[in-house]
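TICKET: design request
STATUS: open
ATTACHED STRUCTURE:
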């Protein structure tokens, strides 16, 4: 049953900072005279609301972008804490918000038990359903909400931290567990399952199943079919598990190309998934472990792209993705251990898959952007028209911003994203020639549903593929180069 929290609502008319030359709308912050350091986790599709937390106090907040008003939700927990205070405020954050300003997230009490919450910008804060007998020793958290508010997704966990992905319906009063992915579906024993993102219509959910062998978070989606949730283990052709025998022997039972396939974001239409991947390598060679890479996968077309970045950087993560595949995130540089400076740049990955662009270059003429010392992007609207992120100034004070996305430059950007690959003939009858401007490591043939037919190693920039044993129809070629994996659709006709 829903319970109205006895909340102390701090709602102040904290006006947005003014920058004469800036197109950025900036949240209230310490930099403009307020005791706030707002971190936005999500933005509504109409770019009217931002939800997240105040990092100074760990308190959930909703920011009205147009007016500058910030509503913060402070709940004084009744558990006695002797160390500092007699009562301790519950801490937490909102993880998602829809066009109506309804946000969902979680609050942790003094005993660090998490409870799922839903709130509106006018200060109404309520608990979603949680099981008093079970969840009070573990917890539960809501992570996504559909546009009409009818579907809320997240997870609940027990005292042993075993998580279950779940859906709340009927205004948050009913909770249903999502189907558990099986070992046969995923290719590894599943330890935990969580749901983190939901499409705008509430019919596609993105989450992860944790590999009990490696601890990796491996992407999985659930789709609603005839009113029932069905698991889609779309990563099965990419993620490679590994394990040790009792004698200590390392076993890698397949030939998939990635040892990590972590979900990071879902587009509003449910088509695109943003991922963090780690290329397959020799786990015993600690001097040559590759960097994690950002990737995106289109569920409807079964296409997969990876962004490489040069050795001057240590991490690239794309935290938001639009309906056309445009992704936004953060590019982290190497630490200078003399000055302890580390560059962090907000970047946009163009939908055409050819380049990355720093917003510091796209908005080089903007006064606010020029004052950033570090920045990241965490959200992009479905139509790729607005982006949200955060930036730090010289005093390391963070501010959340919203800005209309400018046209993406047509130049080469930071990196070339994918190899140039030609296929001839397509359609093919008996053979197909494949040429690349980079080294091709392997080529896999999959049916149109993504099921593996066969794989051949290449280790050259050219290859000839024998297709005369294939039936007439459409197929997918999964081509692994030194610059990542590219999926091409081909046809066989006779």
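STATUS: resolved
RESOLUTION: sequence designed for all positions
ATTACHED SEQUENCE:
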């Amino acid at each position: 049953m829903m319970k109205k929290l006895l909340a102390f609502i701090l709602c102040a008319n904290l006006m947005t900072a003014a920058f004469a030359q800036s197109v950025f709308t900036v949240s209230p912050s310490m930099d403009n005279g307020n005791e706030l350091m707002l971190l936005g986790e999500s933005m509504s599709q109409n770019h009217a609301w931002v939800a997240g937390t105040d990092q100074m106090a760990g308190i959930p907040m909703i920011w009205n972008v147009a007016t500058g008003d910030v509503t913060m939700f402070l709940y004084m927990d009744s558990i006695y804490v002797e160390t500092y205070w007699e009562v301790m405020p519950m801490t937490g954050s909102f993880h998602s918000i829809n066009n109506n300003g309804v946000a969902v997230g979680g609050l942790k009490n003094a005993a660090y038990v998490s409870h799922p919450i839903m709130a509106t910008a006018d200060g109404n804060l309520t608990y979603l359903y949680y099981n008093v007998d079970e969840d009070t020793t573990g917890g539960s958290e809501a992570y996504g909400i559909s546009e009409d508010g009818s579907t809320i997704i997240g997870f609940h966990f027990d005292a042993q931290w075993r998580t279950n992905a779940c859906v709340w319906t009927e205004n948050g009063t009913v909770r249903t567990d999502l189907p558990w992915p099986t070992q046969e579906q995923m290719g590894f024993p599943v330890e935990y399952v969580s749901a983190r993102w939901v499409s705008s219509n509430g019919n596609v959910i993105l989450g992860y199943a944790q590999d009990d062998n490696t601890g990796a978070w491996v992407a999985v989606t659930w789709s609603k079919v005839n009113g029932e949730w069905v698991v889609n283990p779309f990563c099965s052709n990419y993620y490679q598990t590994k394990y040790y025998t009792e004698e200590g022997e390392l076993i890698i039972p397949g030939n998939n190309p990635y040892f990590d396939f972590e979900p990071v974001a879902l587009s509003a239409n449910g088509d695109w998934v943003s991922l963090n991947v780690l290329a397959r390598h020799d786990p015993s060679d600690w001097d040559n472990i590759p960097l994690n890479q950002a990737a995106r996968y289109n569920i409807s077309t079964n296409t997969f792209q990876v962004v490489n970045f040069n050795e001057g950087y240590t991490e690239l993560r794309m935290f938001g993705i639009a309906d056309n595949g445009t992704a936004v995130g953060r590019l982290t540089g190497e630490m200078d251990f003399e000055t302890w400076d580390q560059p962090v740049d907000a970047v946009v990955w163009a939908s055409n898959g050819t380049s990355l662009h720093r917003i510091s270059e796209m908005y080089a003429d903007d006064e606010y952007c020029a004052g950033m010392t570090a920045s990241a992007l965490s959200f992009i609207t479905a139509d790729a028209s607005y982006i949200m992120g955060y930036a730090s100034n010289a005093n390391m004070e963070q501010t959340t911003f919203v800005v209309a996305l400018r046209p993406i430059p047509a130049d080469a950007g930071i990196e070339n994203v994918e190899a140039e690959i030609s296929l001839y003939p397509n359609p093919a009858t008996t053979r197909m020639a494949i040429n690349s401007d980079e080294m091709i490591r392997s080529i896999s043939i999959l049916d149109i549903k993504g099921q593996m037919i066969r794989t051949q190693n290449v280790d050259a920039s050219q290859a000839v593929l024998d297709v005369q044993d294939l039936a007439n129809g459409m197929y997918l070629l999964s081509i692994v180069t030194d610059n990542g994996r590219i999926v091409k659709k081909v046809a066989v006709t006779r």
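CLOSING REMARK: The chain is about 5% helix and 50% strand. Residues 1-20, 78-86 have pLDDT under 50 and may be disordered.
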